[in-house]
From TrEMBL:
Amino-acid positions noted as binding NAD(+) in the UniProt annotation, renumbered to this chain: 185-192, 208, 276
Organism expressing this protein natively: Lentihominibacter faecis
Cofactor(s) needed: FAD
Protein name: Dihydrolipoyl dehydrogenase
Residues the entry annotates as binding FAD: 51, 114, 343
GO molecular function, one term: flavin adenine dinucleotide binding
């Protein structure tokens, strides 16, 4: 059976489903293919479950520390099963919301694995046989958007295959709070899980090979976070390179690592490997019947699969490098009419990046001029206090010899921060020394992840502090700290000695 669409999207994560909705809104007859659950990694195994668990863990910690506000609770306990239920309910509501949105916008939803063939044809191997018993079908479209996402990477280190060595997917599946957990990798995913499980009473150790946590972020943020997590009982080793993992005869696992040229080891019940994610592009090009193992489990990908996928992609006119698909700024690959977005393309692997790329590709396909500036990407870490960053840091400015001035405000005199006893944070805004244009911002304070949006808007529109100060900020709000950092750039913050 052949069915023609204007647009077929393969992959229903935050890149794919947003692209499909935008395409349909712009008048394209659109279909979306998803082999698992709509919402992708973000809703099912990423952004949403981690934030739900962080919310529960932080709430528990706040209740235990409630004495600071005169609130004393006794016999406060964690029922981890109920925490997992709350997390799953949140996920399910959002996933069903995505399906309703796709339906409401007239997008055809196909449940199965999509394989890209020549001439913009797509084979769909259905997850369940169709009503007429068909297990597969073929469709074609003027335009195709590939949005296959990514899967957790593992290090090529002995012992990675041992039972108890988990990726983020496996950690979500645990039904118990681990007694102890060694986290390999002090990036965003590593530190967020460290916060969750240390708050819930697990003994957490982080091994990070680079000299600091959150290596790409402002130095001050990394240092502060290290201090805060240590205070909460997390054992942190930076410059610590994992050598191998082996079974502990006493139970659990032993991680052997090198730190400052010394061989060290740590024993724990579980090990979390949080060392980044690999593009899931191969599954888009290889027929699931021939490569049943990868259809079941992306982690089963071998060099043989990747090479076969790259060759198939190449024959279609698509270039892949280390598994990532190469595109232009609109997401267009080397093959006419075929676009790629989200975690399968080179760049920052974040849900809002995938969505913005999806909107851009759909707009381009529909003949509109894409609007969003894909170069300005806010990064957020949902620890307590929250961390957010966009644009350049002071260190970046120094490295590129860009003349800048820095407006920094410590939140100790911000009313809202004092009320919630979260006054040990800061907002730092970086502006060009000559033009005044805002170039970057870093925040480590309550609600930083919400407040960074204003800075992204400012950078994207080349605004200056005085333009941003035209609008008032309500009192009392955390957002007043942003106003104070802007005032600091203009000559002096009001509430700062
Ligand atoms: P995905 O979300 O991975 O979706 C791809 C979809 O395509 C999947 O549903 C998959 O089943 C489907 N698919 C793949 N191949 C096929 C095929 N051949 N046929 C049919 N369907 C197919 N990002 C943030 O911005 N903020 C956060 O706070 C955040 N937290 C995270 C926490 C964790 C623990 C993890 C793991 C990730 C987190 N991320 C976060 C990253 C974010 O989840 C990803 O960047 C985002 O989901 C990428 O979107 P995507 O649409 O490109 O791919």
């Amino acid at each position: 059976m052949m069915s023609n669409f204007d647009l077929i999207v393969i992959g229903g994560g935050p890149g794919g489903y947003v692209a499909a909705i935008k395409g349909a809104q712009l008048g394209l007859n659109t279909a979306i293919i998803e082999k698992d659950r709509f919402g992708g990694t973000c809703l099912n195994r990423g952004c949403i479950p981690t934030k739900a668990m962080l919310h529960a863990a932080d709430l528990y910690r706040e209740i235990l520390e409630g004495g600071r506000f005169g609130i004393h609770a006794e016999k406060v306990t964690v029922n981890y099963g109920e925490v997992l239920d709350y997390k799953q309910e949140t996920i399910d509501k959002l996933v069903s919301g995505v399906e309703q949105l796709l339906k409401a916008n007239g997008v055809t939803m196909l449940k199965g694995t999509g394989t890209l063939l020549a001439d913009r044809q797509v084979k769909v191997t259905f997850a369940e046989p169709a009503e007429d018993g068909a297990t597969e079908s073929y469709y074609d479209a003027e335009h195709i958007i590939l949005a296959g996402g990514s899967y957790p990477a593992k290090l090529p280190v002995e012992g990675m295959e041992l039972q108890g060595v988990l990726t983020s997917d496996g950690l979500f599946a645990l039904k118990e709070i681990p007694e102890s957990l060694t986290i390999i990798g002090g990036g965003v995913i590593g530190v967020e899980f460290a916060e969750v499980f240390s708050a819930l009473g697990c003994k957490v150790t982080i091994l990070e090979a680079l000299p600091k946590l959150l290596a790409n972020l402002d130095k001050e943020i990394s240092q502060n976070l290290k201090m805060i997590l240590k205070k909460r009982g997390v054992d942190i080793h930076t410059g610590a390179s994992l050598a191998k993992i082996e079974k502990d005869p006493a139970g659990g696992l032993i991680c052997h690592y090198t730190e400052k040229d010394k061989d060290q080891s740590i024993s724990s019940q579980y090990v979390l490997c949080a060392v980044g994610r690999k593009p899931n592009a191969a599954g888009l090009f290889l027929d699931p019947e021939e490569f049943a193992d990868i259809a079941e489990n992306s982690a089963a990908l071998t060099t043989k699969h990747l090479e076969a996928a790259a060759q198939t992609a190449h024959a279609l006119g698509i270039t892949m490098e280390r598994g990532f698909i190469e595109t232009d700024i609109y997401g267009q690959t080397g093959a006419p009419g075929i676009y790629a977005i989200g975690d399968i393309v080179k760049g920052i692997q974040l849900a809002h990046v995938a969505s913005a790329q999806g909107i851009t590709a759909a707009e381009k396909i529909a003949g509109h001029t894409p609007n969003v500036d894909l170069a300005i990407v806010p990064s957020c870490i949902y620890t307590s206090p929250e961390i957010a960053s966009v644009g350049i840091t002071e260190e970046d400015a120094k490295a590129s010899a860009t003349p800048v001035k820095v407006g920094k405000y410590i939140t100790s005199a911000n009313g809202k921060s004092l009320i919630s006893k979260e006054e040990r944070g800061f907002v730092k805004i970086i502006a060009h020394a000559d033009t005044g244009e805002i170039l970057g911002a870093q925040m480590m304070c309550a609600r930083a992840t919400d407040m960074i949006g204003e800075m992204a808007t400012a950078i994207a529109n080349k605004l200056t502090p005085s333009q941003l100060l035209k609008g008032m900020r309500a009192h009392p709000t955390y957002n007043e700290a942003v106003g104070e950092a802007l005032e600091e750039l203009e000559g002096g913050a009001i509430h700062m000695a």
